[in-house]
Model the fold of this input.
Amino acid sequence: MESSNKIGFAEALGILLIVVYAHLILLLPKIVIEDQGTGSVINIIYVTFLALFAVYVLNLLYKKFKGMDILDVSGFLFGNKFKFIVGLIYIAHAIFIASLLLRNTAENLKTTYFQNTPTPYIAFFMLVGVAFLNRFNLKTIIKCNLIIVPIIAVSFIVLFVLSSENFVLERVFPILGYGAETTFLKGSSNIFCFGNLFFLLLIMPYLKDTNQFSKLSYISVILSGFFIFITILGILLIFPLNVASTSNIPLYMQTRTLTFGKLLQRLDALFILIWDLNILSYLSIIIGFTVSIFKKIANLQTGKTISYSFVLILMGATLIYKNIIETRLLDSNWYKYLTIGLVFGLGFTILLFANIKKVIKDKKRINKGEK
Done:
């Protein structure tokens, strides 16, 4: 990749955080609370440590492949055909994630503010913004994202602090929820909350300084864990468990509980505006990365027209879902396990076998040198 398109540490961190923020705004809290009950708080602490261990392993596996993403490593392992297949799998997953996110966002906006507007119209107007941003290169989108990320972070913290007057401490007990087995064994699958691990497999070639990859990965997981923790804790402390686990958009419900003096009785609209910018930025980054992956596996130089094609594909994928119930089921089941499968099942396996191949090739080279 050309040096002019490289990004710094802060920009890369912004990409990894916007991923988690986007899913926190929508269904992530509901999925975790529905699965873990009052044990969600301990579970998130536990899976944060699991994610940190996963990052430790990832850094070990990437030591021999500085500056390469999972596609480059796939090419090294089994050649360009395998690289092409892996690229298509990652593109399909990215479109799947984006379509679920877009459909859920459109459905939520329809429910809360635009009851008389068809869902496809709302999704279309959001994608117009995504298409406009993708007229520029990925680095420009990432720079815009860097402006949005701190605002989103502050909104989460402000929401938690302002909600504290309504907290009821007893609502987080029993602390282990449905039992230790559910919290620690079954709950291990909630490592999917760290969706930024997926992007860690792709971000290396974009970094100006690849030596910062290790620090970037650890800090992104720690900050993600913090925001997931305060979001889920805040929801549990405000609402009874049956409300927190069944609400489609618990974070939005939390904003409806806020008042700030006599003048500002409804702060939810401000939060929704800020969070919609988060969704637009995230969708733009997904399209940008998708175009970048396609260019790499197809050996293309430019991608402006391709970005419009992927926006149209995303719109089509969004319209496939029959209703919000279907998207909720896909989010709760398929999204969770596909993310785990692609990061740990496919990504880590490719890196592991590539390391083995690298060691074997190095040994052969040394033996030839000795002869």
Remarks:
- Residues 39 and 177 are 4 Å apart (CA to CA).
- The chain has a mean pLDDT of 89.
- Residues 324-370 form the longest helix (47 residues).
- The radius of gyration is 21 Å.
